[in-house]
Amino acid sequence: MDAKPEMSAALRIRKESHLDLVLAGAGIVPATRNGFDAFCFEHCALPELDLADIDLSTEWLGKPLSVPLLISSMTGGALRAERINHHLAEAAEALRIPFGVGSQRVSLEGESDSGLTHRLRDLMPSVPLLSNIGAAQLIDAKGIDVARRAVETIRADALIVHLNPLQEALQPEGDTNWRGILPAIEQLVLALGAPVVVKEVGAGLSPSVARRLADAGVAAVDVAGSGGTSWAAIEAARGATERQRAIAQPFADWGLPTPQAIASVRAALPNIFVIGSGGIRNGVDAAKAIRLGADLVGQAAGILGPALDSTEAVIEAYGVTIEQLRISCFCAGAGDLQALRQVPLLPANGVFAS
Amino acid sequence: MDAKPEMSAALRIRKESHLDLVLAGAGIVPATRNGFDAFCFEHCALPELDLADIDLSTEWLGKPLSVPLLISSMTGGALRAERINHHLAEAAEALRIPFGVGSQRVSLEGESDSGLTHRLRDLMPSVPLLSNIGAAQLIDAKGIDVARRAVETIRADALIVHLNPLQEALQPEGDTNWRGILPAIEQLVLALGAPVVVKEVGAGLSPSVARRLADAGVAAVDVAGSGGTSWAAIEAARGATERQRAIAQPFADWGLPTPQAIASVRAALPNIFVIGSGGIRNGVDAAKAIRLGADLVGQAAGILGPALDSTEAVIEAYGVTIEQLRISCFCAGAGDLQALRQVPLLPANGVFAS
Amino acid sequence: MDAKPEMSAALRIRKESHLDLVLAGAGIVPATRNGFDAFCFEHCALPELDLADIDLSTEWLGKPLSVPLLISSMTGGALRAERINHHLAEAAEALRIPFGVGSQRVSLEGESDSGLTHRLRDLMPSVPLLSNIGAAQLIDAKGIDVARRAVETIRADALIVHLNPLQEALQPEGDTNWRGILPAIEQLVLALGAPVVVKEVGAGLSPSVARRLADAGVAAVDVAGSGGTSWAAIEAARGATERQRAIAQPFADWGLPTPQAIASVRAALPNIFVIGSGGIRNGVDAAKAIRLGADLVGQAAGILGPALDSTEAVIEAYGVTIEQLRISCFCAGAGDLQALRQVPLLPANGVFAS
Amino acid sequence: MDAKPEMSAALRIRKESHLDLVLAGAGIVPATRNGFDAFCFEHCALPELDLADIDLSTEWLGKPLSVPLLISSMTGGALRAERINHHLAEAAEALRIPFGVGSQRVSLEGESDSGLTHRLRDLMPSVPLLSNIGAAQLIDAKGIDVARRAVETIRADALIVHLNPLQEALQPEGDTNWRGILPAIEQLVLALGAPVVVKEVGAGLSPSVARRLADAGVAAVDVAGSGGTSWAAIEAARGATERQRAIAQPFADWGLPTPQAIASVRAALPNIFVIGSGGIRNGVDAAKAIRLGADLVGQAAGILGPALDSTEAVIEAYGVTIEQLRISCFCAGAGDLQALRQVPLLPANGVFAS
Ligand SMILES: Cc1cc2nc3c(=O)[nH]c(=O)nc-3n(C[C@H](O)[C@H](O)[C@H](O)COP(=O)(O)O)c2cc1C
Ligand SMILES: Cc1cc2nc3c(=O)[nH]c(=O)nc-3n(C[C@H](O)[C@H](O)[C@H](O)COP(=O)(O)O)c2cc1C
Ligand SMILES: Cc1cc2nc3c(=O)[nH]c(=O)nc-3n(C[C@H](O)[C@H](O)[C@H](O)COP(=O)(O)O)c2cc1C
Ligand SMILES: Cc1cc2nc3c(=O)[nH]c(=O)nc-3n(C[C@H](O)[C@H](O)[C@H](O)COP(=O)(O)O)c2cc1C
C-alpha cells in the first residue's frame, strides 16, 4: 500500500487517483459476486425482544465498544488524507468504535504527516486507535523500529500489519520479496509491546495463513476477503501502462470471498479474535459476518465518500449500518451478539426438496 | 400495519400511497425470486378424470368452502378501504371463500370505520369472515379487549393476529417492543371465545415459530412468506426519509420463501391448519402450495386491483385462479385436494442424471 | 386437437391461425428451457470409423427405415393441410422415414378431407404411414369404429392415439371428460387389428402413464415432452378471450421435459418401443434422444415451414438433421444406433471437481 | 486442417478468411462457457517467497524451457503464413518456449512453403520446434513418408499429429474416413525416429482416447479442449453454403471443456506428458491448467493477432502471460511448478455451507 521514498511524488498523485476510482466504484467487481447474497437468516416472526434493548456492545483491546464495527484502514493521497483521518477519528469517538488508520509509511518517512500525529489520538481518547504498516516493511533492518514509531506517533492501542502480496505484485514498484515475513511478524509480536493485528487488503486470509499467524502470536486477524474493493480491478482500470492493466485484469476476481474466509478461519481457530471485512455493504452483511464467526466487522470503501465529506456524514452512514444490524438481530430473534452467533442460516434460493 | 392514533392523518395518507405502490408492483422483488418456479408437477397424460367433476371443496371454521382459497387481509387508506372491503365481501360470498379484513386498529380507534361494521357481515352471511389486529396491540393493557371488539364489530368467525416485526422495525413509529407477545397470544386464545389465527405479512413463519404458536393453542397459521409483497421493498422505494429508505433497502429480500415455509411448517406440524400465502400469482402456484401442505391458499396484492374496481372484477380474477387450480389437478391426475397432496413433484430444470 | 362438428368453421379458422403462430415461433418457450442443452456427449477424437459407413438404418412396423426419424403428426387448417400432407408423404417416401398424419377427426366427419385419403398412401408405398385420432374420441360409443375408419381411409400401418388433457382443458370447447380412456385404449388394442401407438402433444408421458399404456398393450409410446411446441404458450398468446389467455399463461412451461421423459420411460420399460419428440431442434438433439433411450425421434413444429413450402424443402431440412445425427455418431465414436446408445454422456457446464 | 491438393487455390482463400474470423473472435463461443472460471486458487496472503525467484523453468524434448508455455500450431493462408511463422519462431527463441507450426500439408505438396523450411529452424536453434500433419494423412500409403518429410523439412524436434474428426466432418471436402488411424499412429511411433505428439484442435481428448494413444507409444498428448477456438462456430458463421452453416451450428459447443479434459486425462494417465490448451486466455488460466495436470500450456487464437504484427508483439503478449503465471504462483504460495501442482483449488462462487 506504500510508496517507495524516491517515488513518493508520483505515487502520491497515483494514490489520489486511486481514491477517485474507489469513490467511482471501479474497485468493486459486479455485485453478483458478493458471497453474502448466497445465504440468509431464518426470519423469526416472534422475536420476544424489544428492538430498543438489543445489545450490540462488545469490547476490544480493553475498551468498550457500542457496536461490533470498525473503520478499516485507508491511505489516501496527502491532499485529502488529513481531512479524512480527522473526520474518521471524530466519528469513531462519537460512535464508540475502533478506527484503523491507513498505512503510515509515507508519513513516517517524513514526507507529509496526513494528520497521523499525536493530535489524532486527542480526537478519540476512549476508543481503540490502530496503527498500520505493510508486512514488507517489517523485513527491513529497521522494521521493528518503524513499527514502534508507527504506534508511538499516533499513540495507538495496537498495530495492524497488512499482507498484500497480490497488490504489491501488481504495482510497478511493489515490494515483492516476501521471504522472512512470518519470522519478522513473530519477532514483532515479541518486541513491540503492543498487540499486533494482521490483515489482508481484499484478497482474504485463508485458514492456513490464519493458523500460521496465530502460532506467531498475533492478537487478531482481519480476513479482508474478496467481494469488495479489488486492487486488481483498480489496476486493470487504471494501471500506469497498458501492460500493467493487461497483467492485472484476470486477477480482478482473485481471492477468498469474505464469508468463506470468515467461516473457515473461525472453524480452524475457534478462539482467535476475527475481524470480518471485504465487501460489507450494509448491516445485514455485517450481521451475516458476525453469524459466521467475526468478532468485529470492518468497512473501507463504503465509508470513503462520507469520510471525505464530514464527521457527521460518517456518523450518519454508520447510523444506517447499525440500525440494519440491530433490525437483523431483531428479525433473527437474537437479543445480543452471542445469540446472533447461534441463529439458523439458510441458503438463499435454496434448492427446494419436497 | 397500523398507525399510532396521534399520527393517523399523516399515516392514512401514507397508506394511500402504499396502495398505489403495491398496485404499481413496487412491493414485488423480481419474479425470478419466486420460489414456486423451482419445482413442478409430473404431468399426467392419462388423468382418468372428468375436469367438471374435480372436487375442490373444503371447509373451514365449520363452514363449507367451494375452493381452498382465501382473500388475505389488506388495510388500505380510508379513502378506498370501504369500497375495497365491500367488493371483497360480496365476492367472498359469491365465490364461497373466506375473507380476512385488514387491520382494524384505525377503525377501532374510532377514526374512520373503513366499512368494517356489522353491515360487512350482512354481505357475506355464509362464509368465514376474519378480523385482524397486530400482535403488538395485544401487549397493551387493553389488548384482549381490543381483540374482542375487533371480532364483535364485524361479527367475525375468527381473529387473525398478524406478526410483522420487520415491517414495524422499518416504519418510523413502528411498534418494536415484542416482549410478551407469545404469552399474550396464549392469553388471547383462552379468553377470546373465537378461534385465533396467526400470520406474517410477507416474511414467513418458520417451523419453530409455528410450533410455539401451535403450543399456544392457535387454530391456524398463515405462513405469509417472502416472494410476493415485500414491505421492505416498498419502504426502500418510498420511505419517509432518505435514511429510512437506506435502512430498508437490504431487507427487500429478507424472509422465508413461501414454498419453503409451507413445506417446513407442514413437516414440523403435521396436524395444524396451514394457510399458504405470499407471492401466489395464479392457480398453478396455489396447487403447488396445497401439494406442499397448505389447507387454504391466500392472495393479497394480486387482487388489490380487482378489489378497487368491482365485485365482479374480484369474482372474475378468482375465476381464473380457480380454473387454473382445477386444470392443475386435472393434469396432475388428482380428483380432489386429498389426491393433489399425494402427486409427485419434480425439480424444474432438474439436473439431468443419465 | 379437434373441433366439435358444430364449431368446425370457426375452429378451422382458429387452426389456420395456430399454424401461423407455430410458424412464428409463438409456441416455443425460450430456448434456455430446452433440456437437451443440459448434457453432452464425450467427444471421441479417435473414432476409428468412416463417416460414410455409419449405419443409421432401423426398422419399424416391419418396414426398413434409412434413419431413426419420424415426421410427427400435425393437423392444419383445411386450407393448407392438403398441401402439407402431400409434401410430407412424398418426403417420407424419399427419405424412407415414417409419417404420422395429424388428427383425422375433421376429415372423418366429412367436412374436408385435407388430403387424408387413399391417395396419400400411394405417395408413400414403402414406409410406415400412421393414422391419428384423439383419445377423447375413443370413449364415444362409436370410438372403435372411428379408429378403424381412420386407419382404413388412408391405409395406415398403425394408429396413433394422442393424449392431450392440458390442451383440451385450455381450449374453450375441449373434451375434458377423460374417464374411461385407458379401458377404451385396451379395447382398441384388442379390436383394431393394427398396432396402436399412444403419444402426448408436448407435455410428456411420465413413466407411470407409459407403464399403464404398456399394460394396455400399446405397440409404442411417443413421449412428446415439453421444451418444444407448447399449446399453453400458444393459447396464452392468442386464446379466444382475455380470460382464456390468462388461464393458459402459467401453463406455458407445464410438462415433462423431453430428455427426462425419454430417460425415465426407458428406465421403467426397457423393452417398449419409444419415440422421443418435443423440442427436437437438430440432429445433435436427436442423437441425445436416441442415447437416452428413444428408438425413433420425431419433429413437428420444426418441419412445418418446409412442409408448407415443398417436398424438396422437407427433404432438405431432414438432410441437415440426418447429417448432424451422422456427425454426432462419428464424433461420439459410434458406428450405429446400438453403439450410440452406449457412449458416455456428460453434464454440460459440469461442476468441476478437483 | 488441410486442403485437398486439387482444391488448394479455393481453400487457401478460405483459410485466409478463417484467419480473419478467428481474429474477429468469431471462433469463440461466449466467455461464460470457459470452464476455467468455475474454480479458483486459495489465496495465500503469506507466500514466504520472492516473486523474482519463482522458478517456472521446465524442459521438454531434452531442451530447457524458461516457462511451461507453448505456441500452438496454426495454419494460415499462404499470404500471411510466412510472416506469422517467422515472427513466432523468433519469439519462441527469445522466450525460450517451444513452437509448433501449423499443418504442413499444403507446403509439403509443394504449393507454397509458408516459410516452413530449413531456415525456420535457424531462427530458433535452442528450443523445440514441432512439425504438424493431420491424422487423416497418415492412413495414406505414403503416410509415414509424409510425416518424415514434415519433420525433416523444418528439422523439427518432434511431430505433432492432429486429430480433428469434427472439423473434417464439417468441412465440405473433409477427410472423413478415420479407420486405421490408431494403428497408423502406432506404426508412425515405431518408424519415425522422432517423438510423436497427438493433439485435438478444440474439441478435446478424452481419457479413453488418451489412453489408447499412450498405449500406441506417443510421447505426449495435447488435449486442445473446448472453450476456446471452435471450428464449428466458425463454420456456422461462414460455411461455404447455407446447408454447411446449418449443419455446423449445433456443434458450436461440442467438445470436452479444457479443464475437464486436462484433469481427467491426468487422472487416467499419471505419467504421460500432457499439454493443456483450448481457451487459455491469460496466465491465470495457464496456472490453473498446470494445477490440474498440464506439463505445458498452449495458446493459438490468442496470439494470432500479435503474430501477424511482429516478433516483439508476440514477445510482449507472452510477457504478460508469463507475469500473470508468475503472480499466480506467488499468490498461491508456490515457488515452482511442482509446488503449484499441490496448492488447493476452490469452486468459484462455491456454495456456502454454514
Ligand atoms: C482507498 C483505500 C485505501 C486503503 N489503504 C489501506 C492501507 O493503507 N492499509 C491497509 O491495511 N488496508 C488498506 N485498504 C484496505 C481496506 O482496509 C480493506 O481491507 C479492503 O478495502 C476491503 O474492504 P472494503 O471492501 O470494505 O473496501 C484500503 C482500502 C481502500 C478502499
Ligand atoms: C396493501 C396491503 C395491505 C395489507 N395489510 C395487511 C393487514 O392490515 N393485516 C395483515 O395481516 N396483513 C396485511 N397485508 C399482508 C397480506 O395479508 C399478505 O400476508 C402479504 O401481502 C403476502 O401476500 P401477497 O404476496 O399475496 O401480497 C397487506 C398486504 C397488502 C398488499
Ligand atoms: C401445428 C401442429 C399441429 C399438431 N397437431 C397434432 C395432431 O393433430 N395430433 C397429434 O397427435 N399431435 C399434433 N401435434 C403435436 C406434435 O405431433 C408433437 O407431439 C408436438 O408438437 C411436439 O413436437 P415439436 O416440439 O417438435 O413440435 C401438432 C403439433 C403442431 C406444431
Ligand atoms: C487460425 C488457426 C489455425 C489452426 N491450425 C491448426 C493446424 O494447422 N494444426 C493443428 O494441429 N491445430 C491447428 N489449430 C488448432 C490450435 O492449435 C489449437 O489446438 C486450438 O485452436 C485451441 O486453442 P485456442 O483456443 O488457444 O485457439 C489452429 C487454430 C487456429 C486458431
Automatic annotation (TrEMBL), chains A, B, C, D:
One of its GO terms (cellular component) is cytoplasm. GO terms for biological process: isoprenoid biosynthetic process. It is found in: Cytoplasm. It is an enzyme of class 5 (isomerase). GO terms for molecular function: FMN binding; isopentenyl-diphosphate delta-isomerase activity; magnesium ion binding; NADPH binding; oxidoreductase activity. FMN binds at residues 72-75, 103, 132, 199, 229, 279-281, 300-301. Residues 32-104, 184-341 form the FMN-dependent dehydrogenase domain. It catalyses: isopentenyl diphosphate = dimethylallyl diphosphate. The keyword Metal-binding applies. Gene3D superfamilies: Aldolase class I. Substrate binds at residues 14-15, 103-105, 167. Involved in the biosynthesis of isoprenoids. Catalyzes the 1,3-allylic rearrangement of the homoallylic substrate isopentenyl (IPP) to its allylic isomer, dimethylallyl diphosphate (DMAPP). Belongs to the IPP isomerase type 2 family. Homooctamer. Dimer of tetramers. This is Isopentenyl-diphosphate delta-isomerase.
